[in-house]
Amino acid sequence: MSTPLIEVENLYVKYGNIEALHGINFTVGEGEIVTLIGANGAGKSTTLMSIAQLPPPEAPKVIKGDIRFKGQSILGMSPDKIVADLHVALVPEGRHIFGNLTVEENLKLATYARKDSQADIQRDYNRVYSLFPRLDERKKQRSESLSGGEQQMLAVGRALMSACRVVMLDEPSMGLAPLLMYDMFRALKELNEEGMTILLIEQNAKLALDFAHRGYVIDTGEIVAEGPSASLMDDPEVKRAYLGG
Ligand code: ATP
Fold it and tell me: Which GO molecular function annotations are given, in alphabetical order (predicted)?
């Protein structure tokens, strides 16, 4: 079997004295859509923040285990390098866009560390606007005036403008009206079909398992079930605890 793109091995992390992850293991292969599902506080965001190597004070501290990208440990790598050199981008919960800047200014800021040509960058602007026509229509608008769903699209657009090949999404469905949610997941599917690797965390287990190829269930900092999405959806315990019976 080839080396997975991302390998999380026996990962323990803490915030101060609180241990949030107790030795989790999972992999993400190139081109896959993998989801981590679990309840509030299970450790899903902590896992993504650990991979993104977010700096303190936000970041959890890895105390044991490893995170590898194409077989190489990335522990201690700067968050900028994770984006610019590994092309791994995090779309955090709460979106973190600049509300006082326009849509197009937000997208432009995301390109700052790119080393490729202007033509490549222009191609990505066109891609973002074709995936999310609502952003195209609103490109001169201040981002704080966008709806929650449109802000979520902008957050994904920013990841694409950083030239990512792997996108990690923290609850992209949060607060979205059904129609916008459909648009969002249709766009993500299209990106995956073009080769984007996706690591998705979600409380909405049904949505996540319908979308992903494989999944892991995380419960209070431990992985308690894993497998192809279809078999997780058939698992009686997963059904009972996460899919509403
Ligand atoms: P949610 O869907 O509610 O965001 P989650 O599965 O993403 O949940 P995490 O946010 O990763 O869960 O939280 C995992 C554990 O770590 C929780 O017990 C949480 O209280 C704790 N935790 C998260 N962030 C911090 C922090 N900055 N300081 C201290 N503890 C934290």
Answer: ATP binding; ATP hydrolysis activity; branched-chain amino acid transmembrane transporter activity
Distance CA(59)–CA(54), nearest Å, equals 5
- Write down the domain spans for the chain: 6-242
Tell me: the pLDDT tens digits for 88-107?
999 988 778 899 999 999 99
Q: What is the pTM assigned to this prediction?
A: 0.94
Q: Which of 13, 15, 219 gets mutated to test ligand 1 (max ligand atoms within 8 A of its CB)? A: 15
Q: Is 79 helix (H, G, I), strand (E, B) or coil?
A: helix
Whether 24 contacts 47, CB under 8 Å: yes
Choose the weakest-confidence range: 15-19, 59-63, 117-121, 122-126: 59-63
The per-residue pLDDT for range 157-210, each reduced to its tens digit, is 999 999 999 999 999 988 788 888 888 999 999 999 999 999 999 888 999 999
Alpha helices, H only, the chain? 44-52, 79-84, 103-109, 118-131, 133-137, 148-161, 178-193, 205-211, 229-234, 236-242
Phi and psi, residue 24, nearest 5°: -90, 150
Among 12, 18, 95, 174, residue to substitute to test ligand 1 (most atoms within 8 Å of Cβ): 18
1 has a pLDDT exceeding 70: no
What mean pLDDT do residues 49-60 have? Answer: 83
Q: Do you find a cis peptide bond into 57, omega within 30 degrees of 0? A: yes
Atom of ligand 1 nearest to the CA of 45: 7
CATH of 6-242, one of 3.40.50.2020, 1.10.645.10, 3.40.50.300, 3.40.1190.20: 3.40.50.300
